[in-house]
Amino acid sequence: MSILSIKNLKKSFFNNGRNVEVLDGVDLELERGEFLVIFGPNGCGKTTLLNIISKLENKDSGEVISEKSLKTSFVFQSYREAIFPWQRVIDNIAFPLQLKGVPKSERYDKVKSLIGSLGLKVDLQAYPYELSGGQQQMVAILRALIIQPDLLLLDEPFSSLDYKTTLLMEEKILEIWEQLHLTILFVTHEIDEAVLLSSRIALMSDKPSRIVKMIENDLQYPRHWSMVGSEEFSNLKQIALNTFMSNLGSKII
């Protein structure tokens, strides 16, 4: 069952005196409960696509059809810009509930319940500057989860983290997805990340971008970083890379 349907989506921007086409006829069906990863080159319009889905930007033409009363949360690439340095962790996570007028005691109870249900250890009284990069990004993710969204949008959320922390965060987001029965749309330009996380991979061309292939990912869940060296993983990665390179062309700069 489709939770989100995108048809012939187009978007362009006026830049340096000319019109630049970014999205040129994107078609996408997102099924409830899946972990769909959008993989494509830098600057191809992946973030623009998420911004349109979340209504942060307007489309030029096409359709974006979602279920009625669909609750969507967005985790941005830069965790340092997403959380408030002057607020403690508990208030950062509870902020969406504060906007809805939920009383403080109830907000705090919901934060503690969410963290407990996910088996996380979080210093709720700390300030963001006292946390590591991975911990700060987890705070941003928990803030997105506190409203119990149906759809979670993640825009290269681990790209600013070191490699070890990225692997740990990838495993944790998979655990969260399975435990909370979320639908996730995840953007990345890292092919290993796309294969490790996804139930399907949507391959985007360079701009003006469109989705050139959908790849089913049949690797078994639960997944672990050790799968990266397996034959099944390598075969799927090669299929994705072959399609990706054939649609990228020979242009480097």
Structure description:
37% of the residues lie in helices and 26% in strands. The chain is globular. The chain has helices at residues 46-53, 79-82, 89-99, 104-118, 133-145, 163-180, 191-197, 231-248, and strands spanning 2-15, 18-31, 35-39, 61-66, 72-75, 151-155, 183-188, 200-204, 211-216. It has 253 residues and is an alpha/beta fold. The relative contact order is 0.18. The strands form 2 sheets. Strands 5-6-7-3-8-9 form a 6-stranded mixed sheet, with helices on both faces. A 3-stranded antiparallel sheet has the order 2-1-4, with helices on one face. It contains 8 helices and 9 strands. The mean pLDDT is 93. The longest helix is centred in the C-terminal third of the chain and has 18 residues, at 163-180.
Overall strand count: 9
Average residue pLDDT:
93
Rg calculated over all Cα atoms? 19 Å
Structural class estimated from helices and strands: alpha/beta
Element order: H for helix, E for strand: EEEHEEHHHHEHEHEEH
What does the overall shape look like?
globular
How many H/I helices?
Answer: 8
CA distance, first residue to last residue:
41 Å
**Poorly predicted spans:** none
Instruction: Please state the oligomeric state of the protein chains shown.
Output: single chain
Main pleated-sheet profile: 6 strands, mixed
Helix content: 25-40%
Beta strand %: 25-35%
Widest sheet: strand order? 5-6-7-3-8-9
